[in-house]
Amino acid sequence: MSRRALLGGGVAIVGLGVAAVLVMKAPAFFGPHYPPSPLDDLLSRLPDREGARRLGSAVLAQQKSFDTRTAVRQLRARFRSSSLSDAMTSDLRQDRLIEVHGWVLPEALTTLCAIAAKVT
Amino acid sequence: MVLRAFQDAHSVPAGTSIDTDLAIIGGGPAGISLALALQDSPFKVLLLESGGTEFEEPTQSLYAGAESGARYIPLEACRLRYLGGSSNHWGGWCRPLDAIDFETRSWVPYSGWPIAKSALEPYFAGAQSLVEAGPFIYEQPQRWTAALGEPITLGEGGVYTTYLQFSKTRDNVLPTHFGERYSDDLKRMSNLNLMLHANVTGLRLTSDARTVDHLDVATLDGNRFQVKPKYTVVATGGVETPRLLLASRDVMSNGVGNGNDLVGRFFADHPIPGDTAIIVLFDGKISSYYQAIQSANGTNFRAALAPREAFQRARGVLCSLATVEAEVQLDGFGQATMTETATALGIDAANMRAFTIGCGMELAPDPDRRLSLGSETDALGMPRLKLDMRISDDDFLRYRATLTELGRQLLAARTGMVRILHRTRDEWMSVMDWGNHHMGTARMHADPRRGVVDANCQVHGVHNLFVAGSSVFPTYGASNPTLNMLALTLRLADRLKGLFK
User: Fold this and answer.
1) Rounded to a whole number, what is the distance in Å from the CA of A16 to chain B's nearest CA?
2) Segment B49-62, tens digit of pLDDT
3) What residues are paired with B361 via a beta bridge?
4) H helices of B50-165, where?
5) Beta pairing, strands B416-420 & B93-94
6) Which residue of B has its CA nearest to A46?
């Protein structure tokens, strides 16, 4: 193999590697960016911060006395031992439901979305 | 077999008195079914029908009345006054009442039938045959689901899939119109005289008010005569039955059977608000029998979502039947909420579909939802009715609780979710329609102070007067009344056969 061919092959491999990383990390590069927040441990659990903010704004509109500090403390306690999905499932079992614009939703989700709306 | 033509009341000589063993007033589904059940019996039956065999405007206009309160269908438009009665515009929906519907329920004021569902069980097969709804298999869902797909998966909880059967209805096949369908059967009855254009304008009691002595009958062209029956059954529907009882006040000043001011009270219908909610199914799959009538096992059927008895007891709700209707697109907020929820639960909702939910609701009994006599009279001199229609906010709240439970169960099963579309009374009333299921106005109770008729449909205190039809229902369930009132009518037929022995 000539030196030129060897160099060309190397460049190609490196290029493919860079491309692969870009594809894998594309959402991070091209998706929405949010300023760092002390609540990222909670907010990172949301699938889509924009959708969550929209839902959360509706929650806040109907819960005028929403207490963010208490909500954060309670959710952190719940998330210490369970995922968002687990917390939602638990809410459904225990009938902890919130109706938002008529949508019947588990409390953990609406609370987390309300927090997202507060800080976003 | 000889077919005897129906007689026309115009041909009866004025002032005549006609003797008969049994007079049935009203040729609707109840009256016709009662007459058919009494064929081959040894006694003479006279069925008096106000209309002819076809719609006639002058007769129909006898139904007109006044209304106040909650918006309701005009009284002359919510029923039909000719042979076959309101089966002539029937939708054909059939479902037996549930056992709980007959119970005294602490959360339902004035509830409690003097009979249990078991008293009607022997008569459902006969009623099912009369409405031509095929085999009686309401509680055998596997016979449909095996052929047409599984029901919606719901988490454990208070709402379940139940099934309605239909009177023949399919494409251009109409439900059983009792007049047209059973005319020849009625004409074959050697012990029946069916008289058309015969309007009963009064139930005339003996002076001790314990016996119907005779009936006043009139035609729209001015002919008048009497019928002297040994027994009388009023089968004129949930609106006209109280009218006749209240208007017959020559001996009892408040009207026949109205010593305790109950006749005409507790009027009920099934509210059928449209588009009450949206159901989202994450995988987009739904069996065809939720959205439209399907055929299988010799019957036509459709699924609905109803609250279980245990849920009704635990949450103090009443029955309802929610049906899946038209497919809809979610708005932006709905799409965002659905996506956020499904993704948080780890569900791929890329193929989701959404549908509106319709419903038939049970109302709580209300003595002030009432039919009473107005000051105007019709062409026969009968007082016209006035209806004070009411629906309480609690009726809506109870149904909302069932929808909330449905939403909870769908999410718990990770199959879907629910959006309830109405919150305020005005929002509910803006989509309100009614089932034309007139009930409650001659309610059944063992105690004469609490009911117009007893457990045998006999008017309290008047030994030879009975009421057939859904006017005797003290509570209403969410099931369409026709099948149930026919079962009750067949039970009454047995009672009458016993009295004549």
Assistant:
1) 31
2) 999 999 999 999 99
3) B320
4) 57-60, 121-130, 142-148
5) unpaired
6) B344
